[in-house]
Amino acid sequence: MNDTTISVAAAEFGRDLETCYRTITELARTATERGSDLLVLPEACLGGYLPSLGGGDESREARERRLRSLPPALELDGPELRRVAEIAGDLVITLGFCEADGDARYNAAVTLHGDGVLGSYRKVHQPLGENLCYSAGSEYRAFDTPIGRMGMQICYDKAFPEAARALALDGAEIVTSLSAWPTSRTATVERLEDDRWLHRFDIFDRARAVENQLVWVASNQAGTFGSLRFVCSAKIVGPGGEILATTGVHPGLATATVDVADALERARGGGMYNLRDRRPELYHSVVREHGVTGRTAVHV
């Protein structure tokens, strides 16, 4: 048996970096006390997310206000992530941040530990005007870590089965899905448990795990930021779609211990191995264009 203990956070992160570091330090300490090998933090946890989501019906004033309140853009090899690596030590940590690459900004994620960066990712799928603030990433790639082969996604990516499948086909055994997933903008409810975007979030997490027969770890922001209220619901999902641990609709840290190799073998060895049984020669229509006009990112 080769168990891996995973912790995943639903936690609040804003613009103040020192507060972010304190929150990361506390979550890392708790995860370590629980014997965790991996800690998954939310999207945009170094400097917070966008204060609002806009798009086609956004007024000029609203757009300009949003562009004036962006998170700090950090370099992948900069001192901010080195500080997180120092906090991590032997713990593997996945977290989200705004990455600077020249004049371009990316909504990005990184997996690291005390020896440095193990893998990085730039968000591919951009919802609700996010392309006005960030450039889009262009690839899904798994990478090796001390706890096995991993892949990363960010938020809206989980709504696209092709994205998770690409990581599974690249050998990912664990996929971390980092989010700043808010409540519905058009059908508000008093109780988070009744929110329809929360229901989508949970369905996507379980579906992506079971259809690829891998371990799926979904973090999320908590609390509020600007006009957004986040649904929490951080969770660890096994390769059969079973929820192994969750924070529910509350901030917190969910932890589960999994023998990843054994769990994948049991899911894939029962006669139905989804990756093996694919018929890609029949799937051509999946990648055809469907009349969607491309969008051009604005670099700020």
Q: Return the structural class.
A: alpha/beta
Q: What count of structural domains? A: 1
Largest sheet: 8 strands, mixed
| CATH topology category name | Nitrilase/N-carbamoyl-D-aminoacid amidohydrolase
The global form is globular
Mean pLDDT: 92
What are the segments in which pLDDT stays under 50 over at least 5 consecutive residues?
293-300
Number of strands: 16
Radius of gyration: 18 Å
The CATH fourth-level homologous superfamily = Carbon-nitrogen hydrolase
- Reading off the top of the CATH hierarchy, the class is best stated as Alpha Beta
- Give the SSE order as H and E letters: EHEHEHEEEEEHEHEEEEEEEH
The helix fraction, in percent, is 10-25%
Distance N to C terminus: 49 Å
The CATH architecture assignment turns out to be 4-Layer Sandwich
- Total number of helices: 6
Explain what this protein looks like in three dimensions.
The protein has 300 residues and is of the alpha/beta class. Helix content is 23%, strand content 26%. The strands form 3 sheets. Strands 1, 2, 3, 4, 5, 6, 11 and 16 form an 8-stranded mixed beta sheet that branches. The C terminus is likely disordered. This is Carbon-nitrogen hydrolase family protein. Keywords: Hydrolase. It holds the Pfam family CN_hydrolase.
